[in-house]
Amino acid sequence: MRAREDQRPVRAEVSAPAGPAAATDRAGDRAGGQATGSVDGPLAASARPLAERFDVALLDLDGVVYRGDAVVPRAAESLAAARATGLRLEFVTNNALRPPAAVAERLCRMGVPARAEEVATSAQAAATMAAARLAPGAPVLVLGGAGLREAIEAVGLRPVASAGPPGPPGSGASGSSASDPAGPGSAGAGSAGAGGPEPAAPAAVVQGFDPTIDYARLAEAALAIRAGALWIASNTDATVPTERGLAPGNGSLVAALRTATGQEPLVAGKPERALHAESIRRGGAHSPLVVGDRLDTDIESANRHGTPGLLVFTGVTTPSDLLIAPPLWRPTFLARDLAGLLAGAPAARTDGPAIEVGEWRCVVDDGTLRWQPSRRRPTGSDGAGSDGAGPDGAGLADDGLDALRAACLAAWRAADSGQPVRALAADRPEAVADLTLG
Ligand SMILES: [Mg+2]
Q1: Active site residue: 60, 210, 293, 402, which one?
Q2: Ion ligand 1: residues, CB < 5 A
Q3: For FRET with 188, which of 5, 141, 262, 313 sits at 20 to 30 Å CA-CA?
Q4: pLDDT tens, 232-257?
Q5: What's the 368 CA to ligand 1 centre distance in angstroms?
Q6: How far apart are the C-alpha atoms of 82 and 59, rounded to whole Å?
């Protein structure tokens, strides 16, 4: 995709609140899920650890906390340490299959204590969307698993499994909501008057990931949508990771129904607003930080909704992906893993055509991205370690990502000015030895 967001200038000497300001930073000026605006980016500075700067971490799960059935190294201890500083956690997943209690139980088994109230799923967000549009008690065809069914029940809607009585779709012969001039939103009340043993026509189809979905259930959903039911998808992720590789995700089954119906669903999950708002509401967040491994869901969601985002490299995104990211996919902060919550972030400095981060300096020279030691580097230093962080995070010890940060900022600036990087210098720091242009 191409960038839709405005080009953001690199901020020289981005400063973070320090001293007394720290006390007010967590409270922020956020209200109603809107952005605080107190953190700029991409790759903003923070002299203080992120866990002390934000009140709630909105944590993606797969690729951040766990990978498949294994906890990500350092995740459990980092989250425990972050909690000890006062950071609250909300686990946010696009996967609608498991109910929050099951997600929490799974996290606990992995050594990450979590309660059901600390989990926000795309199923809950989809149910909230449906409830806002339907009459209480309206029948909803649930094309998904237990997580979606429970979420629909929890908002006072009634899960059903059938598209309703037989009859040519859209003909009105069935007396379904399709022919109701008041639209699908009235079907909840209308269905009660259908009488007899025939099932009520669903007012909505809510679709989420469920590996047991078969043709018969897809067909019921298609018939209901064609008959005029509101269609909500929990998310549109094309694939889901499995131990054997990428398998079709909810987005692939959404595509099947899109083909069959010619309709487009409303979407609840990341990067759309509903799940983001749901997670902020459930987490009671005033100054949240999105933490994720994907640029197209986690980071795009953060940027679209004005929330700072921390990208971790424990999931699908590689440093090379980041180097060519369009503006909407550029994170506020970078870290190797969740231990990044316990650290600050270095300031970027512009110096003529160069951008410096920590002890590295990058320039784009005739289309080639080059690294040099920064002018601040102490004599004899190899770029590893320094201390005495200033109020702008300028003196933070290199976490091994400063050469990448400088490279990204230089490459993004070049791309935004219409002259993207075409080559990477062969002579470069060890930390970015594997970087490519895709
Ligand atoms: Mg993920």
Answers
A1: 60
A2: 60, 62-63, 293, 315
A3: 262
A4: 999 999 988 777 888 999 999 999 99
A5: 32
A6: 12
